[in-house]
């Protein structure tokens, strides 16, 4: 995938200042089309430009291609990841686990379930998804690494397995409503405490 760099990562070039209104219209048009049932494969720059009321050149001045635009658009569904305070591994993990599967844009309820089969079918779309979630995964990895350094967690901790154990139950519950009687308000705390029982030094 050659055009994955998002505008958040790319350096700005000199010239006329970008229109924030145009940026927002393009992102919103992309999400609207996905929410209305367009697949990633079928989504086109032409359709996005028409919905946003801009020319294709306006989009290409901001993003090198469709994949980079999709990356920025999908990231907006979740908003900014929470920032750990650094005071306690437990508290930071509860904060991060609580943000898993939480979206700030209601269109996510229609987009994310449709994204899963596309991610499974296409290596390119799988990479798009990985790029979308990696910033949040990196935060959790850093908290666990800090816990090892401070002695709050076991020195032989397998960080990737620990991250899967922390993330899996929340994703299962929020995406599939696997257990209707679970209280989602306290679920992040329950999951973290349950997993930490096996991660702390013995």
UniProtKB/TrEMBL annotation:
Residues 1-20 are annotated as: Disordered. It comes from the Bacteria. Keywords: DNA-binding, Transcription, Transcription regulation. GO terms for molecular function: DNA-binding transcription factor activity; transcription cis-regulatory region binding. Residues 20-81 form the HTH tetR-type domain. Pfam families: TetR_C_11, TetR_N. PROSITE patterns: HTH_TETR_2. InterPro entries: Homeodomain-like_sf, HTH-type_TetR-like_transc_reg, HTH_TetR, Tet_transcr_reg_TetR-rel_C_sf, TetR_C. This is DNA-binding transcriptional regulator, AcrR family. It comes from Micromonospora siamensis. The lineage of its organism: Bacteria, Bacillati, Actinomycetota, Actinomycetes, Micromonosporales.
């Amino acid at each position: 995938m050659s055009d994955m760099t998002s505008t958040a990562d790319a350096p700005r070039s000199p010239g006329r200042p970008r229109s924030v209104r145009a940026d927002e219209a393009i992102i919103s048009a992309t999400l609207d089309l996905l929410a209305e049932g367009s697949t990633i494969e079928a989504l086109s720059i032409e359709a996005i430009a028409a919905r946003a009321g801009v020319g294709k050149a306006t989009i290409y001045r901001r993003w090198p291609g469709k994949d980079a635009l999709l990356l920025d658009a999908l990231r907006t569904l979740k908003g900014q990841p929470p920032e750990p305070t650094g005071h306690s591994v437990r508290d930071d993990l509860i904060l991060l686990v609580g943000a898993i599967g939480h979206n700030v844009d209601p269109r996510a309820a229609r987009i994310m379930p449709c994204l899963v089969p596309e991610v499974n079918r296409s290596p390119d779309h799988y990479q798009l998804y990985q790029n979308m979630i990696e910033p949040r995964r990196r935060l959790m990895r850093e908290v666990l690494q800090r816990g090892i350094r401070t002695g709050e967690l076991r020195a032989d901790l397998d960080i990737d397995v620990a991250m899967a154990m922390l993330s899996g139950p929340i994703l299962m519950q929020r995406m599939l409503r696997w257990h209707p009687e679970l209280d989602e308000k306290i679920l992040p705390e329950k999951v973290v405490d349950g997993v930490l029982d096996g991660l702390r030094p013995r």
